[in-house]
Amino acid sequence: MNLKQYIIQKSQEVGIDIIGFTDSGRLDDLKDYLYERRENNRETEFEEKDLEKRVDPKSIFPHCKSIIVVGISYNVDFNEKVDFELKGKISKSSWGEDYHRVVKDRIEKLIDEIEKEIEFNYISFVDTGPLVDRELARKAGVGWYGKNCSIINDKYGSFIFIGYILTDLDIESDNPILSQCGDCNLCLRACPTGALEAPYKFNPKKCISYLTQTKDEIPYELREKMGIKVYGCDTCQIVCPKNKSALNSKNNEFVPVNTKGYIDIEEIFNMSNSEFKKKYGSMAGSWRGKNILKRNCIIAIGNMKDVNNIEFLEKALKDPSPMIRQYANWAIKKIKT
């Protein structure tokens, strides 16, 4: 039996869109880059602090020989309008079901299929592992780095979630794919905050996707660039020509049936925690909790610059959270100026 071909076939049967294989070699090409980011205070609070764990698969799984990298498309189309006025935009990465659960489920099904044929040891991750998953995806031929530092696949574009399995199996590696961006720089020109400072050079602390998740105070000049985005940002991906021709996803779990891609701002301010969990608990963007989303909603209201919203913000000045009161005060001043 050709184990690699068997795994590829089974990956398709369990609903995995893209699969690639790479070895357990160190990702030392990234080490200088990671140190530079740390020295320039561009490391976020969401990253593994031990850089060895970020570049050495065997520091995570000593018996690692091969890594199976999977990609699942979330490039779903949805254009249904919402019936509320005060709305905050959610990025596609948080539409529908939490992708951590969806991708993890597909990986576990693939593991079950492999175990039917061969006994092996493994450990798997979906966005929570210490290794640089995009570099693993590049090495495994899942896609290539775009100038916006996203992994782009020829068929599915960049709206893909990545997961990986460290294994003690011997599987032939796939070849990396060189970037196909050419002279295109649409993503760099479109980035609202200038987080894409140069081709393949990204400042995460200026990225709107990061800003909507951090608990740190957001600088005034960056708040104004966030528009009505309350979780994530798709701008650099939307303008990418590769996504214009990408296949649509067949993964219906990512269709935003409950939210339609927006948060009802008035509703979230009147929700109890249990009501919030019931409506938003299954989406990826809920992991930071209700208060961070409320803060982002206030920024969105400030950016709307509609005097009719001041009354709503004045109520927020009485919120139990000092953070909410602080941002409400900023939003009121922004609308009045």
From TrEMBL:
What biological-process terms (Gene Ontology) are attached? Answer: tRNA queuosine(34) biosynthetic process
Q: Which SUPFAM superfamilies match?
A: 4Fe-4S ferredoxins (SSF54862)
User: What UniProt keywords apply to this chain's record, in alphabetical order?
Assistant: 4Fe-4S, Cytoplasm, Iron, Iron-sulfur, Metal-binding, Oxidoreductase, Queuosine biosynthesis, tRNA processing
Q: Name one GO molecular function term.
A: epoxyqueuosine reductase activity
Pfam families for this protein: Fer4_16, QueG_DUF1730
Q: Where is the 4Fe-4S ferredoxin-type domain?
A: 169-201
Q: In its UniProt entry, what is this protein called?
A: Epoxyqueuosine reductase
Source organism of the structure: Sporanaerobacter acetigenes DSM 13106
